[in-house]
Design a protein that fits this description.
- The structure is a homodimer.
- The first copy, chain A, has helices spanning about 5-15, 25-35, 40-55, 90-100, 125-135, 150-160, 185-195; strands at about 55, 65, 80-85, 105, 140, 165-170.
- Chain A is α/β, with parallel strands linked by helices and about 200 residues long.
- Helices cover about 40% and strands about 15% of the residues of chain A.
- Chain A has 2 domains: about 5-55, RecR Domain 1 (Helicase, Ruva Protein, domain 3); about 65-199, Dna Topoisomerase Vi A Subunit, Chain: A, domain 2 (3-Layer(aba) Sandwich), CATH 3.40.1360.10.
- The model of chain A has no long low-confidence stretch (mean pLDDT about 90).
- In chain A, helix 1 (about 5-15) crosses helix 2 (about 25-35).
Chain lengths: ~200, ~200
């Protein structure tokens, strides 16, 4: 790659490590950066440099946060008696985007996966149980992903919470909006059928 | 977007300004950065910060370079009597990737476009003519893009160079490799026909 000046080559190399960014895309992005005003490029570089320094975990729910408490936990208008358990901060963001949920969260940091050597101790399950014991929750919504690991994690947590006596629910599974029965996989169809609701 | 911590939001915002990076992709990239080792993220941020400071234009051919002369111009093994005229540094990179060209380049910085208010004075055409006058070139290859602006630019430069007496050529146009006649547009087909060569 002798024909790229080293500083460009370095940016291309660093960018191409990002997910779904190949060498070609990285090169296009690098040349785009070279066309921008220097302040704009500096702004991106600076934002990335500061990202890891400034971001830690919320001490209450383990969401990503640049303060002791994350934006959700520090929002007093949220329903503090409603707890939604998710695997990752990205799942929290997806739920927040819908605007439909007004309670608080608990981020596990993953799902149980014997294959990846992730057991209950690798997740923030103990912290969850302690939090529920100490808090005054009306309902705990298990919003782990609808796949094998997510299901297993939900079942595991549901059992743990049984003696506590709090209401434990699970997100509905069924047909995705805008879907077509013909192109829906069998498992989704079966769950849609099992979970059918009366009008 | 209250649910994203400000430093994350800032990276998402900066990333989403890049071409073909929407808000969703930017968010995925930002969360990916948060999972990496801090040194790796710092490395990307630093590379981007240094990019604009270190990169300027080659004083001879106007390719992007971190030195007075770009890697191509400072390579003494290149044929200094063969000059290839391209619109942008990215075009140069594409040609270099093929490895088929061993001469030097001249980067115009765009193409003539009355619609975008780009006339000959906005491009490095004067520099090109001076360079050809002062140098000892055997052939000038016009490798502007095969579109209206590129063609117009090539024709304009070819006329300018007529009195100089240097051989001026244009990249061949025709069927792309791996293409199919059935799905080739009329203009390409016509040019392929016009440019047909004997075995």
């Amino acid at each position: 790659m002798k024909h790229l000046a080293p500083p460009i080559e370095r940016v291309v190399y660093e960018l191409s490590k990002l997910p779904s960014v190949g060498r070609k895309t990285a090169q296009r992005l690098a040349f785009h950066l070279l066309k921008l005003a220097p302040e704009e490029v500096a702004s991106l570089g600076q934002a990335i440099l500061e990202l890891r320094d400034k971001i830690g975990l919320c001490s209450r729910c383990f969401n990503l946060s640049d303060e002791e408490l994350c934006p959700v936990c520090s929002d007093t208008r949220r329903d503090q008696a409603l707890l939604c358990v998710v695997e990752e901060p990205t799942n929290l963001v997806a739920l927040e985007r819908t605007g439909v949920y007004q309670g608080v969260y608990h981020v596990l940091g993953g799902s149980l996966s014997p294959l990846k050597d992730v057991g209950p101790d690798e997740l923030r399950i103990r912290e969850l149980v302690t939090r529920i014991h100490e808090g005054d929750f009306r309902e705990v919504i298990l919003a782990t992903n609808p796949n094998v690991e997510g299901e297993a994690t939900a079942v595991y947590i549901a059992r743990l919470l049984q003696p506590v006596g709090v209401a434990v629910t699970r997100l509905a599974q069924g047909l995705p909006a805008g879907g077509d029965l013909e192109y829906t996989d069998d498992l989704t169809l079966r769950r849609a059928m099992e979970g059918r609701r009366s009008y």
